[in-house]
Design a protein that fits this description.
- The protein has helices at about 20-30, 100-110, 125-135, 160-170, 170-190, 190-195, 200-215, 220-230, 230-240, 250; strands spanning about 5-10, 15, 35-45, 50-55, 60, 65-70, 85-90, 95-100, 135-150.
- By secondary structure, it is α+β, with helices and mostly antiparallel strands.
- The chain has two domains: about 5-150, Spore Coat Polysaccharide Biosynthesis Protein SpsA, Chain A; about 160-250, no CATH class.
- A hairpin with a 5-residue loop joins β5 and β6 (about 65-70).
- α2 packs across α3, α3 runs parallel beside α5 (about 170-190) and α5 packs parallel to α8 (about 220-230).
- It is globular.
- The N and C termini lie far apart (about 35 Å).
Length: about 260
């Protein structure tokens, strides 16, 4: 509702280091192609700041698995920690702390910040994908730090770790994460990249589907919601893909980082 140049999204469980807002605004002021910025997010565990990364931006792999970059890893072991300066260009930024350029939002989505269908979870990845398709960039400012007391468990890499992670998630997290993940793929995926990575995408989705059939059938009701909204999803996909200025080859590079 405001007329500001930038829009700040902020979780309630964040503590800030020095000059975080000033740093994001200054960077966005001097880099017009950048649509979103975030500080380096570090973890708070048991009220202690222990040097564990919470998020260095959003990533997507060839399975189309979304995650927070370097989450749960010690900061001192990251190559970025050697300098702690400068921007790190990423696929998108976590909505835990995210500053968005208003004009970029207008250009990419027609002025809507997050898709209201999503309610919660994955909405920042959906927006990040649309901004990338429109030719905008996203950065994490490594020399600006915020600390986050994460409520949801980390996304993990191994099969058994993933199963354990799902068992620890609340019902609402599992439901909206599953439904919104599929909606994000339907809306934003480019056909050439989907075809190239189809075996990996199919295997990942079949594993999730099998787990849900056996242990969590309530989450599968999200599929019926997607089906009931199929006409709207078709319209959204047409809008997003017709406005894309970045080709599938360049977008596909993000899936292999």
């Amino acid at each position: 509702m405001s007329g500001s140049d930038y829009i700040l999204i902020l979780n309630q469980d964040v503590i800030f280091g020095a000059d975080v807002f000033e740093g994001m605004i200054n960077f966005l002021d001097h880099n017009q192609k950048v649509a979103s910025a975030s500080p380096r997010l570090m973890r708070i565990e048991n009220n202690a700041r222990d040097g564990i990364v919470d998020s260095l931006g959003l990533t997507v792999d060839r399975r189309r698995r979304f995650s927070d970059r370097k989450a749960g890893e010690p900061w001192g072991l990251q190559s970025e920690s050697a300098t702690r300066t400068g921007p790190c260009f990423v696929f998108g930024v976590s909505a835990t702390v995210a500053m968005y350029r208003r004009e970029a939002i207008r250009f990419a989505t027609g002025g809507r910040l997050f898709d209201q269908f999503y309610f919660s979870y994955q909405e920042d990845m959906d927006l990040a994908w649309q901004l990338q398709l429109r030719g905008f960039e996203s950065v994490v400012l490594l020399d600006k730090v915020a600390y986050h007391e994460r409520g949801a468990p980390d996304a993990t890499r191994g099969l058994w770790s993933t199963v354990s992670n799902k068992q620890n998630q609340s019902a609402i997290v599992k439901y909206y994460s599953y439904r919104n993940h599929l909606a994000t793929l339907i809306k934003n995926e480019q056909w050439p990249n989907f075809i190239l990575d189809f075996p990996w995408i199919l295997w990942y989705e079949l594993m999730k589907f099998g787990y849900l059939v056996l242990f969590d059938r309530a989450t599968l009701h999200g599929l019926s919601e997607l089906w009931s909204e199929r006409d709207w999803l078709k319209i959204e996909r047409k809008r997003i893909q017709s406005g894309a200025v970045v080709g599938w080859k360049k977008m596909g590079q993000w899936m292999y980082m």
